[in-house]
Design goal:
This protein is an alpha/beta fold and about 120 residues long. Helices cover about 50% and strands about 15% of the residues. It has helices at about 15-30, 50-60, 70-80, 90-115; strands at about 5-10, 40-45, 65-70. The two termini are about 15 Å apart.
């Protein structure tokens, strides 16, 4: 099953509405957490100095893709890895472009797993 790493500088509580929207967006393109995609969440709890460590942890977990939901998080993650990193919430158009790219990456990952 493909694995998505989600990196955010805030807390899960602060991002609850956006996380719901993110999951709905994934569902719109055919991905449901726990059914056909795994999501590993990492939150810096407003401690931006933790972002490089959290990004590196996602890389060690060998996620298929990292979605960073803030520019700061994306920049920190970019220092730690080279999977797709995108600020998913800056503008709606970029959000949908991310989902389309994510769909492509996860579809390719799924095809590589099939015998």
């Amino acid at each position: 099953m493909p694995v998505l790493g989600l990196l955010n500088p805030r807390s899960p509580d602060a991002m609850a509405d956006r996380l719901r929207a993110f999951r709905l967006g994934l569902k719109d393109v055919g991905y449901v957490e726990g059914e056909n995609v795994t999501i590993i969440y990492r939150f810096a709890e407003d401690q931006n100095d933790r972002l490089p460590e959290l990004a590196a942890e996602l890389v060690r977990r060998q996620v298929t893709v990292i979605a960073a939901s803030a520019t700061t998080a994306a920049m920190r993650a970019a220092q730690a890895t080279d999977p797709l990193i995108k600020s998913a919430y800056e503008r709606m158009a970029e959000h949908w472009m991310l989902l389309a790219r994510l769909d492509s990456l996860l579809h390719n990952e799924k095809n590589n797993e099939d015998p």
